[in-house]
Amino acid sequence: MSxxxxxxxxxxxxxxxxxRFQFDGKTHKGFEGDTLASALLADGVKLFGRSFKYHxxxxxxAAGIEEPSALVGAGTAGRYEANTRATDLFIxxxxxxxxxxxxxxxxxxxxxxxxxxxxxxxxxxxxxxxxGPPKLWMVYEHFIRMAAGLGKAPRAADKDxxxxxxxxxxxxxxxxxxxxxxxxxAASASGAKVILAEQDRELGGSxxxxxxxxxxxxxxxxxxxxxxxLLAKGGRILTRTTAAGFYDHGLLxxxxxxxxxxxxxxxxxLAQRLWRVRAGQVILATGALERPRLFAGNDLPGVMLSGxxxxxxNRYGVRTGQKVVLTTDNDxxxxxxxxxxxxxxxxxxxxDSRAASAAGNSLSVRRAQTRLPVHFGAKLIxxxxxxxxxxxxxxxxxxxxxxxxxxxxxxxGGFSPVVHLHMQAGGTLGWxxxxxxxxxxxxxxxQTTAGAASGVDGLGQTLTSGWExxxxxxKTLGLKGGSxxxxxxxxxxxxQACRSLADWxxxxxxxxxxxxxxYQNDVTAADLDLAWREGYRSVEHMKRYxxxxxxxxxxxTSNLVGLARLALAEGRPVPSxxxxxxxxxxxxxxxxxxxxxxxxxxxxxxxxxxxxxxxxAEKPIWQPVGYWHRPRAYPQGREDLHQAxxxxxxxxxxxxxxxxxxxxxxxxxxxxDAAAFLELVCATTVGKLAVGRGRYTLxxxxxxxxxxxxxxxxxxxxxxxxxxxxxxxxxxxxxxSYVRKVLAPQLKVTVANVQEHWAAAAIAGPLxxxxxxxxxxxxxxxRHMSLGFGPLAGIPTMILAASYSGExxxxxxxxxxxxxxxxxxIVEQARGLGGCLYxxxxxxxxxxEKGHIVVGGEIDGRATADDLGLGKMLRPAxxxxxxxxxxxxxxxxxxxxxxxxxxxxxxxxxxxSMLVTAKGAVPCGHVTAAGMxxxxxxxxxxxxxxxxxxxxGDVLTATSPTRxxxxxxxxxxxxxxxxxxxxxxx
Amino acid sequence: xxxxxCPHCGPRAQAEFVFERPLESIIQIDEAxxxxxxxxxxxxxxxxxSWELWRHTYGCQSWLKLxxxxxxxxxxxxxxxxxxxxxxxx
Lengths: 986, 90
Fold this sequence. Notes:
- The complex is a heterodimer.
- By secondary structure, chain A is of the alpha+beta class.
- Chain A has seven domains: 1-155, Ubiquitin-like (UB roll), CATH 3.10.20.440; 161-288 and 417-494, FAD/NAD(P)-binding domain; 292-413, 3-Layer(bba) Sandwich (FAD/NAD(P)-binding domain), CATH 3.50.50.60; 505-570, Arc Repressor Mutant, subunit A (Orthogonal Bundle); 612-662 and 757-838, 2-Layer Sandwich (Gyrase A, domain 2), CATH 3.30.1360.120; 665-753, Alpha-Beta Plaits; 891-972, Elongation Factor Tu (Ef-tu), domain 3, CATH 2.40.30.
- In chain A, strands 8, 9, 12, 13, 14, 15 and 28 form a seven-stranded mixed β-sheet that branches. A six-stranded mixed β-sheet of chain A has the order 40-41-42-39-33-43. In chain A, strands 44-47-46-45-48-49 form a six-stranded antiparallel β-barrel.
- In chain A, a hairpin with a 5-residue loop joins strand 45 (914-917) and strand 46.
- In chain A, helix 4 packs parallel to helix 10 (459-476), helix 11 crosses helix 13 and helix 20 (768-776) crosses helix 21 (819-832).
- Chain A is elongated, with a radius of gyration of 37 Å.
- Chain B has a four-stranded antiparallel β-sheet with strand order 3-4-5-6, with no helix packed on it. Chain B has a two-stranded antiparallel ribbon with strand order 1-2.
- Classes of the chains: A alpha+beta, B mainly beta.
- At the A-B interface, helix 19 of A face helix 1 of B.
């Protein structure tokens, strides 16, 4: 079999350029310009896949993005795209496509047996199983999961790159058919900057199927001239670009396919591009989609939309059938019949549901009547055939049931304007009862609709409507226009209207259980009728109950057929049963293109402290803290993390350690009202702080919970230095701004975030003071909670004497760009005294031992200062953020979770474990941080316990069912080292 | 995505801004407890025009008052905090 159904000439394919590709492992040939569907159809392939629920054989229904049936997987690992429409995939050399939903193979699908039991899986099957005994659901679930799922999600990481671009244009035209091109030309000629988006790979829309004469030129030449003109005026044309979503304030997302599904990109690696376009005016020239009709077996391979049959013939040179039956309610199908007849196919019958008197008097109808078997008032009852395609049709002609032998059934159930973007933009619709079509009524945004998308019929009107929309858009933008003259005009013979007369009623003899409405989700007319009988009257309920329109095609061809069925059951007109919501995206969008560049290391910023390279030379274990990367430990030799952290913490307890605290949140608060401002933010006393002194402080949220902690230092009478946690620095920055600008704009104070201006080294341990004084001179080390200044290694520094580790400690601050020599001098001095560097893991061990709380650990957004045992620090007079909320009764409940210490009696306390009573295992709290006693050894932890401060001495179980670990623990005060605080004072 | 006209930076995408709260839910330092509880936990969710506090966090970082219609996203006014619609101070 090789291209047996290909016409010898005609169409927009390049017969001189053969492309080889694979479908289900078999090599096929097609031509440049072919879609996967057209190339396979030309090769005589009819079966493309199996249906979702019943595994019925399915072929190609359409010729564009609306295809519900011919879904394939394209590409190989790392580039595999599931559920790609064979009609929306232009072949390329090396394409590997596979059919879906079949097992073990397309030809032999064992699950197709499911269609035999289809009477037992009716509409709402899933919901109904929930009413049965739970044990039965276990049986159903296995069965459902085996059969469910459309396509296979790729497992390999995406190899390709995606990018985002923003664009601002006067006018965005979506669609490049006759209306879109005319609109773009008119707007452009009026002086507007125009961007044109076309989802196909070439411009022209319907003109690619139905060539015409426009302004005396062949449409092909007219399109080329329009392209040249648009580009010459500075316009931009994006092909293979789908307008997927229309959002608020004139924003549209355009998805540009740089490569075809599964295709390897060029040297830049770019597969797709997301354009975020804001345009002054948007013109939607998105055309219309043909609808199928209801008859039994309307899903068989060989049943195709009439317009698609014509597209395959005219655009791709593929005659999809030799003996053809057409069923229609409009004139457009006659054009298909005539084209097929001219190409040598036999037209078995044209079944027109309209009465002879109602049929259009168009050129096509008149010509067809003279030479083809046209039957008015006729309908199709059933298509008969197999996976190999249609073999015959059962028709109702002149009241008689007649069998017709055929290999192709071309169907036209009228046209639905593509109103998706208009509706996403918040527009409303009007209903045309005659044509059975919703078309745009009121636009809510700066947007209009032109051509078939607006319900216009016939090429002449389409061109005019596009032209007028383009002029109107330019006028709205205040552009007077220069060269815009008269709209493009087509030859009279090409101006053929569809003249649809909507007919929703299937022939009375039709078996509705085989008459599919939603092909992709296998929803039949009988399913809809059943749902209605079961009480699902709202369109939204019916949609969810039956899954109508919920597949990847979002019911593009099927929704209106389903609505009409519901309207019929309700005995109400179609518009009164309502529409389901049109949501973006218009066609499926690859997640990769939405993520764009923001993947992997580019997902979030990576902030490196200024000393990063200095640390890197020590080869530490790194730890992310917020966006920052800080050393977690500095292993020596073969040490693991825990061994290194223990050595480092022991050094701090016995000698001296140095750590980088440059990432702490730091704020410079200056002004006559600086103290008053800080008393709003800090829950502790600030105003009474003497110059040169500092305090530990807490910042609360408005609901009274602790938000962050830090230290506040009075550098001068009207100047304070405030620190906060590394991870909470950005939140604290926003909070300070909120208090200053929103709550207390009257205060004379400025706040500068100086987090990255200052870098700092913390020196902790019994020998810390010696390190400072050896470097800076006798008496240079300030008292605990005091600050000082002085040069170190020739660099001006600020020294804060504060301790987190529980040892005598100093934080030495220097301007970030000058920290290098300061750090080097401190580390050299400390090492000379037997000290070492320590990282976050040692810091964690040390602070647990001291019962010092940490943001994200004990400060978890649910704890008050009192819960943390710090209630006495709060200013009794109140007047700070969060003070009032502390008056809520629940805040003083004695059974609140309170911070306690935990000592293991036996075993090791598991991280993140829960606390349960020793008898009865009643949950009563949880562990926030587990560590060890540095000097004496033994497992210790901090945790929250209900009414914990009154339960010291109790024995509980700390258990982690997920880790399958548990320990017996004794409740103690949350401090395990140096209760009196002698170590950090002078 | 909304297009918000920052008085300092001009038209910018919503992604640069952070919604803070309805203007009427700002809790003053001396707020009485019942009012505080209402503003924290039982905020109204108006359909229609509403004054809101936003911040141009990923831009100039200024605090802004937006008069936004929650029903159709029309933004009627964007003012700096402390500014009134007629250009005076509030």
